[in-house]
Structures are given as C-alpha cells and as structure tokens.
Amino acid sequence: MKKKAKLTGHRGYVTALLVGTALWTLASSAADAAATRAVFDMTRYCTVCWKNARLQPDFWPDCTQEVLTRVLERLSPDRWERVLAEDTEERREFLRAIDAVKKRTQRAHRSASLDTDLADSRESRSQFVCEIRSTLLQAAEKSLSPRQQRIICLTLDGWSVAEIAQELDLPAARISDEKYKAIQRLRSTLAHEM
Prior knowledge:
- Helices cover about 80% and strands about 0% of the residues.
- By secondary structure, it is mainly α.
- Helix 6 (about 160-170) crosses helix 7.
C-alpha cells in the first residue's frame, strides 16, 4: 500500500515536470524558466498541503492539477515566481486555490462515504425487517387461527386496530383482544423454536 501511495505522490511531480517541460520548450527567456521552476515549487507545496489535510494520496495529483489550472487562469506566468513569496497577492491567490480544492475534495469524500453508509444501513435494515416479517408469518401459520393470521398480517402492513375492525367487519374491541392473544401465542411459539 505504501508503495502505491509513494508512486501516486510522484505523479503530481510528473505532471508539474510535464507542464514545466512544455513551458520550457516554448520559453526562451529567463522569465519563462522562472515560471517553470515556480510550477515545480507549487507542486511540491501542494503535495505537502494534501498530506497535512489527510487527503487520500490517490487524489493528490488531480488536486494539484486543479490548483495549477486555477493559478494559470488567474495569474499570468510572469507572476508565478511570486506565488511562494511572503505576503503577496499571488500567494493569497495560490492559497485560495489550494483551500478551495482541498475543501471540495473533503466534502466530496464525506458525502460519498455518507451516501454509502446510509445506503448500507437502509439495505441492512430492510433485509432485517423482511427476515423478521417472514419469521413472524411462518410462526403465525403454525400457531394462529386464520382470523388471527389476517390480523397479524394487516398489523405488519401498518393497519391500525380501527382499520382492521372496519376491514373484517368486527368491533374494534374484538380485534384488539384477538391481536393481543395472537401476539402472546406468537411469543410462545417463537420462544419454543429458539
């Protein structure tokens, strides 16, 4: 695992070197060479930021590339050498880009893990409820009268005592009594099976 992370971290340097090489081949002046060096320095600085922010190493090259893209959009190459200088507008712009990319990546990671956790939780809960329902219905078939089975089935479907009474055309007190007896009998049956 460490080997993969180490190789991934170098990918950011490779990206910076490729950008730097492209600039170098296009450049003939000392200013362009300074911009190339600035890209390399910014890449190294970003790598330390990603490490300190505890971002997954797999994300580092993409984050670095996004920061370099933002810097390229906002600052001309002749201003890049001032990016790492103390208290300059270029540095503030660079740090804003790093902060925005870091926060976006952290939010995306958090929401992705929350979605996964919630989906897993819902799925396992749904499966658990289905298993309980199946166990109850099997026990009901073994130990309850057909009317009690129907009352338990409707109860499991979320029907109230009044709704069941109306459905079966019986008084609510009778449904409540039958439901109570059915639940007691189910408890007894399930206790003996376990």
